Here is the input.
Amino acid sequence: MSKEQWIKENLAAGEEYAGIIIGKNGDQDYHLILLPGEIERASWNKAMDWAKSGIGQLPTRCEQSLLFANLPEHFKAAWYWSGEQLASDAGFAWSQYFNGGNQLTSHKSFEGRARAVRRLPIQ
Here is the structure.
């Protein structure tokens, strides 16, 4: 099957194919798909709720790196929340700057942007 045919069969209107994430430690490999729309000026909790309401999730830090590499034109030059909390302090979560690619933690009350993704397991 061609890439074009696969995309036609597996992506809905407005979705963008980002690439493959290789599963680690026995996790399954999957296709990463960027969902349409975004939210701005949202705390981490608000961004998490928004992503779930659209049947998506906030991307992981690894997924944000893939999005920055393959789909940077779909992001403003701004900070975007990831779905990952800081392991040592649950009051903070990771975010990525989609201008330079930097990742850092911010207090969850910071009002940033967010995009949602969905994951399609590779059979």
